[in-house]
Amino acid sequence: MYRYELHLHSSACSRCGRQTMEEIVTALKEKHLSGAVITNHFYYGNTAIDKTLPWHDFVMAYQEDYLYGARLAKEAGVKLLFGVEEGISEDRGKEVLIYGVPAAEIAARDELRLSNLPMLSEFVRSQGGVIIQAHPFRDRFYIENPNTQPRAELIDGIEFYNAQNTPEANEKSLLYIKEHPEMIGIVGSDAHVPQNVGDTFIETSQEIADENMLVKVLKERKFTCFWGEEAAARLKE
Ligand SMILES: [Zn+2]
Ligand SMILES: [Zn+2]
Prior knowledge:
CATH topology: TIM Barrel
Number of helices: 7
Bound molecules: zinc ion
Helix content: 25-40%
Strand content: 15-25%
Number of domains: 1
Mean pLDDT: 97
Radius of gyration: 16 Å
Shape: globular
Largest sheet: 9 strands, mixed
Order of helices and strands: EHEHEEHHEEHEEHEH
CATH architecture: Alpha-Beta Barrel
């Protein structure tokens, strides 16, 4: 059995991140996780990367900390995969997680600097990736419309449990995924500090070797989600 964290942030790339790649790798090892997807804040999110850079340079700078972490992880015998958390430009504070799209493909498209959800969604799908709504129904000062949902046809799934969301928001998300069985339902720790790494994870029977395989596992629903007390108990087994 393999365990992967699907949503976390590092301090070099997310302005709100409070953990280095060294700390992330150590936390994964200590908690006996097989790996994690790094989903730092991107252009329309709380990125730590200089947004005045030309698009290509911005994306390459964004990827840098991930590449550094991936090398450390390899030496330590855990896996880091590349992901993105991007803000929805036309709906302030709402965010999506993107899996299975290489940084080089994003860097090659200057028009993504002006993206809205329909554009982003089309791009991600054309790349064979998946686009998943992060922390639905989150109610915080920076989110304009906490209770509205993006058009269902523009997303492939939702994070029905986010460890940083309130129980009320997670309850609404769980109801939403039950009403949309066609969507992929995932869990995310949204870890910004090492203590939160492993608050949620997925278990798979197959090792996830790369981002393409991650997408395949997600699309085929070949994973089980763990969160809350059950996740904590499982990590102690
Ligand atoms: Zn953040
Ligand atoms: Zn996040």
